[in-house]
Amino acid sequence: MHLFRFFAAGAATFLLTACGHALPKIEGFDDAAWRSDPYACQNKRAAQLPALNRYRDQLYGARIASIDNLLGRPDEEELSAQTEKTYFYYVEPGTQCEPSHQRSSANKLTLRFGPLGVVTEVLYERPLAVPAS
What PROSITE patterns does the entry give (predicted)? Predict the structure, then answer.
């Protein structure tokens, strides 16, 4: 019985670590500038959006830890009852820049993670008006 538990635990660990992928280096994206502008109050994140959008498809399937390494902790986070998580990163200044940091209608990048902790959706509150290059 102990041997079965050992193999079952090993298989579960393998499956969980095999899900998702690490992110490649995003050319032209200044992750330090992005992370140094929480809530986008200094409007530094807008300059990073063209590079981020060029690699947007590669964000799908990325692990939470990879997103945290790239973008830093989210400005806001939601957890659902189904063990899904949503990260919000503001991309323009708005009322979230006031001392209370209330949720704002300012444009934001939204990343949804499935139960296995990988990105399933990459959305913006409003479509971006930035060139692709």
Answer: PROKAR_LIPOPROTEIN
Digit-by-digit pLDDT tens for the chain (133 residues) are 555 444 444 434 334 444 566 777 889 999 999 999 999 999 999 999 999 999 999 999 999 999 999 999 999 999 987 789 999 999 999 999 999 878 899 999 999 999 999 999 999 998 876 555 4
The reply to whether 38 falls in a domain is: yes
Residue 12 in any domain: the answer is yes
- How many structural domains are present in the chain? 1
Rg value, the chain, Cα = 17
Question: Distances from the Cα of 78 to the Cαs of 18, 29, 72, 94, in angstroms?
Answer: 25, 26, 16, 20
Give the pair of three-digit tokens for residue 40: 């986008």
CA distance 78 to 9: 29
Percent of the chain with pLDDT over 70: 80
In a domain, 104, yes or no: yes
Residue 129 lies in a domain: no
Q: Residue 45 and residue 21: Cα distance in Å, rounded?
A: 24
